[in-house]
Amino acid sequence: MWHRWVWTLGLASLLFGQGVGIGILEPHSAAILHLESSNKGLLLPRLTRAQRDGIQNPPAGLVIYNTDNNVVEYFNGQCWIPAYAESCEDCNFTLSLNPSSGVIDHVNTSSVQTTLTFTQTAGTPQPVALQIYSNLPPHTTYSFNPPILNGSGTATLTIQAEPIAPPGTYPIVVQVVCGNTIKNVIYTLTIRSCFRVDILNSTTDYNLTARNPNIPTNEPVCVVVHTHPGVEVSASSTNVPAFTTGNLHPQSVVALIHEGAFLGRGGDGARGAPFPQYSQAGAPGGDAMHITTRTYLYLRNGYIFGGGGGGGSAGVEQTFEIGPVRFSVGVAAGGGGGAQLGLGGRPSGNFTIGYFAPGQDATGGLTAYAGLGGLLSYTTSISLGPATITVTGQGYGGNGGEYGYPGRPGHVQVCIGGVIDMPWPIPDIPISIGCLPPGGHQLEPGGPAGYAIRRIGGAALVPYPDGNYLTQFLKGRIGP
Q1: What tens digit of pLDDT does each residue of 351-399 get?
Q2: Cα-Cα end-to-end distance for the chain
């Protein structure tokens, strides 16, 4: 017994004096426990978070392996923190995206969404910043909802791409910052390509699908149209627009990069002034553009002008009977033509007493001017058997409208009188028909301006709401 006691005492002295070595005969003098192995490791107690938190009064420095987080943790006297953390305030978290990729084809999808899941595993809950840490393609935007998380939670990331965004596949770095911890996840965005059409030369009556038969019309497609600087697309008449998206499938999408000019045809000025109107309305201006499907408009110093309305005519064209004398009077002023290329009002009919002041034709092109209405200042007399008829006309035809403007109404007053010669000594008999039109008579108006952009079949125009536009680049109405 004495020998066993001496041996135990010696062993204890060795253990407490030099430390314990496992796998090594001479443990390091600074180590209380020295482990050595070439094929084994140290296995710490493995606890779930709930089991860890069930330890009563853990001492500072107690170490475990957390099976929920798969990290080594220690108790620093205040809280459990990962071995790599410095304080209880350090933010540690996991991050994921679902789904991790998406496709924008512009027809079925103009945006993609993914759910970001943020789970804070250590540290005090705090505001978490969400951001994209990479350059998105041009004409692509993103948003987070909510934009900031406070502790664990989810946020929806939405990425939108306009039809003119360059096609391709882009890795998008989604970054989350919590305290001093930054983590990234990758979202893969694919943007599909669209048909591309370049209008390089001036032309008339441009129909997108008729000019480009390679574009399908029996299925939804995306088309990017680029009208280049200096190109003027005009209309040959007021019955057709200068440009139309044509017969595209109604669910198609068009993006128009516009650096040229679309010019609607001007309405013609009115001619003649039949009784009892004493005028005729000017012709409507033509439309600059028709869209038949959803269209994005990018005005890059490009012009879209609805044709000006034609001016109204004004005058008197009427037949009179005074006793045995029957005569016709045609005194009128024609309306001016609307910009662009609207024709001025011309004479109509043959009259016993006739005078017609024609309206001016409008000029054409981007800087076109509307035609002025005819100017009426006329007095004439004519002998008809025993009668001498005097006609005095004062007035003007309505001016044509400039781009985007209606034509104007005219104004006229024609006074008719005279005498009937009687044989001597019977005095001559004065004739006084009076002045026409009668006071308060409303003459016909000028023609309305053509549309800048007419939406056919409910097609949407982005980003322009319906309304009347009289700006440097848009002149005329946008609407159905």
Answers
A1: 888 889 999 999 999 999 999 999 999 898 888 888 888 999 999 999 9
A2: 112
Distances (CA, A) of 221 to 165, 224, 455, 464: 15, 10, 18, 22
pLDDT in tens, 240-278: 999 999 999 999 999 999 999 999 999 999 998 888 889
> What CA dihedral angle connects 101, 105, 108 and 114, to 10 degrees?
20
Closest CA to 280 of 196, 370, 349: 349
Query: Residue 17's pLDDT is what?
Result: 56
The residue length of the chain stands at 480
CB 473, CB 305: distance < 8 Å: no
Residue 423 half-sphere exposure, CB side, CA atoms within 13 Å? 0
Q: Scanning the structure block, which residue is given the tokens 């759910």?
A: 115
Which residue type occupies 329? V
CA 405 centroid distance within chain? 24
Angle among Cα 105, 107, 108 to the nearest 5 degrees reads 80
Q: CB atoms < 10 A from the CB of 46, how many?
A: 10
Query: Per-domain residue ranges for the chain?
Result: 2-82, 92-191, 199-436
Q: State which residues of the chain have pLDDT below 50.
A: 1-15
Please tell us whether the domain made up of 92-191 is placed in CATH 2.60.40.10: yes
Residues 6+ apart with CB under 8 A from 356: 315, 330, 331, 332, 333, 334, 346, 347, 348, 374
Give the bridge partners for 186, in sequence order. 173
- In this structure, the number of other CB atoms found within 10 A of the CB of residue 293 comes to 24
Q: How far apart are CA 96 and CA 84, in angstroms?
A: 21
DSSP state letters, 135-152: PPPTTEEEEEESSEEESS
CA–CA separation, 394 vs 371, rounded Å?
19
Phi, psi dihedral angles at 106 (to 5 degrees): 75, -25
Amino acid letter at 287?
Answer: D
Residue 308, judged by CB atoms within 10 A of its CB (0-12, 13-18, 19+), counts as buried
For residue 3, the one-letter residue type is H
**Range list of β-strands (E), 27-84:** 33-35, 46-47, 63-66, 71-75, 80-82
Enumerate the H helices of 19-162 as residue ranges: 49-53
